[in-house]
Amino acid sequence: MVVQEYAPPKTIDAHKARQRLFDIIAATISVLGIAPNKLVLKTRERQKGKNQYQKLGEKGEFLEVTEYNAHLLVNLTDYLDTGLFLDHRIARRMLGQMSKGKDFLNLFSYTGSAPCMRD
User: Fold this and answer.
1) 77: which DSSP letter?
2) Which residues does the UniProt record annotate as the domain S-adenosylmethionine-dependent methyltransferase (predicted)?
3) What residues contact 88, with CB distance under 8 A and at least 6 apart?
4) Separation of alpha carbons 64 and 47, rounded Å
5) CA distances from 20 to 15, 27, 39 (A)
6) What is the distance between the alpha carbons of residues 22 and 43, in angstroms, rounded to a whole number?
């Protein structure tokens, strides 16, 4: 489970924001019945340029996810984004279907996931 928190604006009390985040984490663990070590916390802050793509860690741990017939590996810890965005599922499938039997240069994203969606 990935919990993403946007850094609070300066107008929000930092202590209240931190407590709210702890409450969300506790509720997520309780409601979903997951072990705390299965939760990944990511905090988004305003960044510019290449800073938004910097590595956050060096764990190199991958989780296999299945999307339609494709098995993909995602890294939940080393970067802010996994690169495999849920709202792109339909577009990835459509690209996979349209490219069936054709050469496909994947410029869709840095994940290379769209060609994997071919049935």
Assistant:
1) S
2) 20-112
3) 109
4) 29
5) 9, 10, 16
6) 13
- The reported pLDDT for the residue numbered 43 is 81
- Please give the structure tokens belonging to residue 79: 């970067």
Distance CA 25, CA 28 (A): 5
**Residue-wise pLDDT tens digits, 46-82:** 666 666 556 677 777 888 889 888 898 888 887 777 7
**Domain 1-46: CATH class, spelled out:** alpha beta
* Cα separation, 98 vs 115, whole angstroms: 10
Q: Residues 40, 76: contact at Cβ < 8 Å?
A: yes
Q: Spell out the SS3 assignment of 66-77.
A: EECCEEEEECCC
> Under a CB-based contact definition with an 8 Å cutoff, are residues 62 and 84 in contact?
no
Structure tokens at 28: 């997520």
Between CA 18 and CA 8 the distance in angstroms is: 9
Q: Locate 92 and state its tokens.
A: 């990835």
Element (H, E) at 86: none
Which pTM value belongs to this model?
0.62
Which tokens belong to 61?
Answer: 């741990």
